[in-house]
Amino acid sequence: MEITNLETPCLILDKSRLKKNIAHIHHRMKNRGVNLRPHGKSAKNIEIMKMALEGQSGGITVSTLKEAEYYFSHGIRDIVYAVGIAPVKLQRIVRLIQQGADITLLLDSPTQVMFVADAGKKNGLTIPALIELDCDGHRSGVTLENGLLVEIGTLLAREEGVSLAGVLTHAGESYQCKSVQEIRTMAETERAMAVACAERLHQNGLPCPMVSVGSTPTANFAEDLTGVTEVRAGVFMFYDLVMAGLGVCDEEDIALSVLTSVIGHQARKGWVITDAGWMALSRDRGTSAQKMDQGYGRVCDTAGHPMGELTVSGANQEHGIVSDRNRAELPWESLSIGSMLRILPNHACATGAMYDRYYVTDGSEKIEETWHRVNGW
Question: What was the pLDDT predicted at 160?
């Protein structure tokens, strides 16, 4: 089947770029002697995760229990659920463990320790948990200085029903860096903080078998991973315009795109109207704070080649507005009504969320396979 036979909007995955992106991160991790624990939230697909796991120890990261259940059903047992745990989710966690999954939870408060311990005791289980660390003020987690690290670690080691698996941090602020050197500095901040917290636990007689760090930017530019046991990353499989804007990848590395049809013209405004609005592309405007604002996405032809300076400059729920960023005359002959375009996304994870499948190419306009995605929580 050719791309032009597909109903739009739909999600296109270039397998040749996917393989190249995965091989690059595998090479970096191997050279630094650290295991990759790929994040399943970007792929939401077993074929892709099998590629990402090749040569690694077998463990993955997830951000939803739906992902955990899906990957476990396909034979992956070692799973870190890398979102702070809530009581309402414990029944599903317990069920997965009882079925044979090795689920490790994430928490950053004594309150969470106690309700996880209670669930473990009630079900005759010992549930491992990682202490979430705040290395950059980006989100959740404890710091080295506030005393909670040792308090939580002591509770996890003391209470029945739980155990201390180690520490985990995520340098989310790396997405705001303005240069590659800033990303390198952030990667060292991430590593140093996690290792220092592990050492603090050891100094207090507490175990810390896992020292887990990661984000796609820091995974790409970390120079030293001494003391780290694993790196987590997810969007490296696809990359996107935010990653390109950070200098983490080139636009030519982006493996994911949305196929859309031209459904109208507004010639007096210099607009082309497509059937891919923000429901198809996501409302993520992550490039707006970067040097190059890509609107809601970069416009390519059906072969995946960028078309001049065309972007999706505006979006309604089911309509995209394509225009030239420099207000140049549009190549109307290439944008006829009924013709198709491919849009590179700002944020691959957010864009993929609306779709139930990938139409897989191998660097051409021919669809070779269809891979299904798991969505929801």
Answer: 98
